[in-house]
Automatic annotation (TrEMBL):
It comes from Microbispora corallina. Pfam families: Thiamine_BP. Belongs to the UPF0045 family. This is UPF0045 protein. Residues 5-95 form the Thiamine-binding protein domain. InterPro entries: MTH1187/YkoF-like, Thiamine_BP, UPF0045_domain.
């Protein structure tokens, strides 16, 4: 099984500059050892099971909750049978199509 979860966790009521607090969530994800990528809007993490990936999300939310009394979470998931590596392969497929290469 391959489970990809893209999520965004945002502290509420702490002002506009939330980068320092959001960084706490990203630290949790990176410390998990699971493949991950952070961009301007989401952090995506990949694992072999729902439990493994959602535990990381839960811990990331807890890290933000430690610094904010209210937290917003947006989550999108993609699960399918098969091996991992989709964090990289899905992007590589799009890049191949953009460069005119075969799928």
């Amino acid at each position: 099984m391959s489970v990809l979860v893209a999520f965004s966790v945002t502290p509420i009521g702490v002002g506009e500059d939330v980068g320092e607090i959001v960084a706490e969530a990203v630290r949790v994800v990176r410390a998990s050892g699971l493949p991950n990528r952070t961009d301007a809007m989401f952090t995506t993490v990949e694992g072999d099971t729902w439990d493994e990936v959602l535990a990381v999300v839960k811990d990331a939310v807890a890290a933000v909750e430690a610094r904010s009394s209210r937290v917003s979470l947006v989550l999108k998931a993609d699960a399918r049978p098969g091996d991992g590596g989709r964090l990289e392969s899905k992007v590589a497929s799009v890049e191949r199509h953009l460069s005119g290469g075969a799928a």
